[in-house]
Design a protein that fits this description.
single chain, 350 residues, mainly beta, Immunoglobulin-like, 2 domains, 5 helices, 20 strands, 11% helix
């Protein structure tokens, strides 16, 4: 696989920032004196709006904030807040012309390396990819691959070409295969009816064959079935149960209103505790369920989630699903709500 550094432009940018720093005391006085001389020189040479060669450069823009990512199926969405907001005055955010998005291949633990380098991966103009309701800009990384991990950072650039430091948030993401919207899957009653052979679901098989919408739907009733879960009905109430002690499940609830992509993205962390002791529970419309799957052959964990988007009583439930390919990584998506940078960032997201 070609690395990010091989595909894009690589820079040795440190996350501690690249903006000029003016210190207090003697050094600050010297900087002020130098600035005064430059202003006088600019005035003597006739600086004007049409000719900025001799002008004092604009201040570098402020660092973009609220940077976060959303995992997709072979893509990642990077989002950040527009920087034209108080308490920063005009000299910091006037004439911002674009944002630069940086990326790098990520390995757990190297977020603590201050010398790690990023590759310039894309840019977004100040008036593009912007939602005025949320104040967020966005960038689609359509080169991200399922099963790989990436780190992202964003900077701002003004009309003078001055670039801010890289954003301070630690943002790492691992896109993952999933079936949503038109790729939702009906799982039938595995005990009663004519379609009991379509009553189980194998998350890893669904991820293995992304072009086959129904690859994950398997027969839970055959010997050595690979199903992780099975669906059945108690009267008109849909139920789910795990098929092995190696599979755990818990109800994450209804995180954000009716079913849809925003609702689906809200469940972002696989919890360490709280799984059902029986492996059996009611399926509720608009609820999302987190699944932990232990593979005894490799002694690793994989995490998955399913969301109930439709119920046909006594017949089937229709689900969204997602499965994390990277072992022991409980990331199902990156948080939709921006998270402030942590002193010790960790990557355990769904």
């Amino acid at each position: 696989m070609i690395s990010r550094a091989e595909e894009g432009r690589t820079f040795g940018f440190r996350r501690c920032g690249r903006s000029p720093v003016y210190r207090r005391g003697v050094q600050g006085a010297k900087a002020a004196l130098l600035l005064g001389l430059l202003v006088a020189l600019a005035a003597a040479t006739g600086c004007n709006d049409e000719d900025c060669v001799n002008c004092i450069q604009l201040e570098p823009p402020v660092v973009p904030t609220g940077v976060h990512s959303i995992s997709g199926d072979n893509y990642v969405i990077v989002q950040w807040y527009d920087i034209a907001y108080s308490p920063y005055d005009g000299r910091y955010n006037d004439n911002v012309v674009k944002y630069l998005i940086y990326s790098r291949d990520f390995i757990e633990g190297d977020q603590y390396d201050p010398d790690r380098t990023f590759t310039l991966w894309g840019e977004v103009a100040w008036d593009e990819n912007f939602d005025p309701t949320t104040g967020l800009h966005w960038f689609y990384d359509e080169d991200a691959l399922n099963g790989s991990q990436y780190e992202y950072a964003v900077s701002a650039v003004n009309a003078a070409g001055m670039e801010s430091a890289l954003s301070f948030e630690f943002v790492a993401d691992a896109p993952l295969p999933q079936g949503v919207d038109d790729d939702a899957v009906e799982i039938f009653d595995s005990i009663n009816g004519s379609y009991t052979a379509l009553g189980g679901f194998d998350f890893s098989r669904a991820a293995q064959f992304p072009g086959d919408q129904y690859a994950g739907r398997v027969d839970p009733n055959v010997p050595a079935s690979t199903a992780d879960i099975r669906v059945f009905f108690e009267g008109t109430v849909p139920m789910v149960e795990t098929t092995s002690p190696n599979v755990l499940i818990q109800d994450a609830g209804n995180p954000q209103g009716p079913a849809g992509l925003y609702w689906w993205e809200r469940v972002s962390w696989a919890p360490a505790e709280g799984y059902s002791h029986t492996g059996r529970m009611e399926l509720t419309l608009d609820h999302i369920y987190v699944v932990e799957i232990y593979d005894p052959a490799t002694q690793t964990l994989h995490y998955a989630k399913l969301g109930v988007v439709d119920v046909a009583a006594t017949q089937y439930v229709k689900i969204f699903w997602a499965y994390q390919l990277i072992p022991n990584l409980p990331e199902l998506k990156a948080p939709e709500v921006p998270v402030q940078a942590s002193l010790k960032p960790g990557m355990i997201r769904l």
